[in-house]
Design goal:
- The protein is of the alpha/beta class and 425 residues long.
- The chain is 33% helix and 20% strand.
- The strands form 5 sheets. A 10-stranded mixed beta sheet has the order 9-7-5-2-10-1-11-15-19-20, sandwiched between helices.
- Helix 3 crosses helix 4.
- The longest helix has 22 residues.
Length: 425
């Protein structure tokens, strides 16, 4: 039976939460496969906004089983706080399952994240300072604590003692910070977090395979996006895991043949948070207009996003990295007031035209975007309930993006609400 992956095709914030929420109505299970609480999804349901960080977007449907997979790094305090806030709004969170193989974010991860960014100065990567990178680093170094360790106090304390000895040396000797006490950390994680999380901890690999075997429909969602991928993004300005569709397999335990469709999410323009190359970045009045109309500020961090024209070079690369079956285009309505809209169809550097991003960072930082301009539609799209209602210029823009990227567009977002989308015929 089908397993669908939802993946961002740009630098994140494309609207994955809304699309996941849209697709989830026809699914039985939504699985988060990587990342942590450094990325947020904002979903508007009947005028009420829900800001999700760790909990899979499908939690808002009573028929969905939300699963946090093994590829995620979990801050228990954040997860439990998020569950409490959802429950206070009347959302049933009792079905949430958490992989015992997911890794824990610990206070020393957050402290080291903050200190490292500060000491990097002008070379800072622009992380959210929430311990995501250090937690993944410990996972790779094989000194990480996992969610399942919460179920065995003896093992938890032994592992914590080993890793904290090293972390305290770094904190005290390099950064001149006070040491953390293993006793304090153990008491909080084992006495406060473990009892509440224990009923949710399970073998999620078995859960997802059992679900497929009985004919269930699965939706896999990641955090961040293709060009924040550790291997394929604009390194080093990337996240610490693999948001691409291949990461959906490693982060959930499904095999490649279990995936039947891969939906790429793309804004009708492009945004980016933090440092790193951005060939189509806009400054001036048009850029400010897109920030204002698109409410381009981080769901979790509040940071202003950088904005730019749609970049077909990036999208072509995302299509082949993820084997995209189709694209969901979001925030088309943000462009409503523009006289013209531009699309980057290629890059130029040193007399060479690039249809795909150049692999070398020195070239990428020096490219000049080649644009094609299309007329704007100067019409409010937010009330459109069918693709046919879109003005001709808006439909021309959608068709042009399909043509230039080589991927069909299956959904077009025309507003922030759950029902504000249309499907091209």
């Amino acid at each position: 039976m089908p397993a669908t992956v939802v993946v961002g095709t740009q630098w994140g914030d494309e609207g994955k939460g809304k699309l996941t929420d849209l697709l989830a109505r026809d699914m039985d299970m939504v699985v988060r496969y990587q990342g942590g609480h450094n990325a947020g999804h904002r979903i508007v349901v009947e005028g009420e906004a829900f800001a999700l960080q760790l909990v899979p977007s499908g939690v808002l449907y009573p028929h969905i089983t939300p699963v946090i997979g093994n590829g995620v790094v979990v801050d228990p305090a954040v997860l439990l706080d998020e569950l409490d806030k959802l429950a206070a709004k009347g959302v049933d969170v009792s079905r949430l399952l958490v992989s015992g193989n997911a890794h824990l974010i610990m206070p020393y991860h957050q402290e080291l994240d903050r200190l490292t960014e500060r000491f990097l100065g002008k070379n800072a990567l622009g992380t959210t300072k929430r311990g995501i990178g250090p937690a993944y680093a410990d996972k790779s170094s094989r000194v990480g604590l996992r969610v399942q360790d919460l179920l065995d106090a003896k093992i938890f304390r032994e592992k914590l003692d080993v890793v904290l000895h090293e972390k305290n040396l770094i904190l005290t000797k390099i950064y001149n910070r006070p040491a953390l006490r293993a006793k304090d950390l153990a008491e909080r994680y084992l006495d406060e977090f473990a009892p509440r999380l224990a009923p949710r901890i399970t073998d999620t690999v078995a859960v997802v395979h059992d679900a497929l075997a009985r004919g269930a429909r699965l939706l896999l969602e990641g955090a961040q996006a293709t060009f924040l991928d550790l291997d394929h993004g604009t390194y080093p300005f990337v996240t610490s895991s693999n948001p691409v569709a291949g990461g959906a397999c490693t982060g959930s335990g499904l095999g490649p043949r279990d995936l039947t469709s891969i939906v790429g999410i793309a804004k009708a323009y492009v945004t980016r948070v933090g440092a790193g190359p951005f060939p189509t970045e806009l400054e001036g009045d048009v850029g400010e207009l897109l920030v204002e109309r698109g409410h381009e500020f981080g769901t979790n961090t509040g940071r202003r996003r950088r904005v730019g024209w749609f970049d077909a070079v990036m999208t072509r690369q995302a299509a082949r990295l993820n084997s995209l079956t189709d694209i969901a285009l979001t925030k088309l309505d943000v462009l409503d007031t523009l006289d013209e809209v531009k699309v980057c169809v290629a890059y130029e550097a040193g007399g060479v035209r690039y249809e795909y991003p150049p692999y070398h960072q020195s070239v990428l930082h020096d490219v000049t975007p080649i644009y094609e301009s299309l007329p704007g539609w100067k019409t409010d799209l937010s009330s459109c309930t069918s693709y046919e209602e879109l003005p001709a210029a808006a439909k021309d823009y959608v068709r042009f993006l399909q043509s230039i990227t080589g991927v069909p567009i299956s959904v077009v977002g025309v507003g922030p609400g759950r029902e504000q989308f249309v499907r091209p015929s």
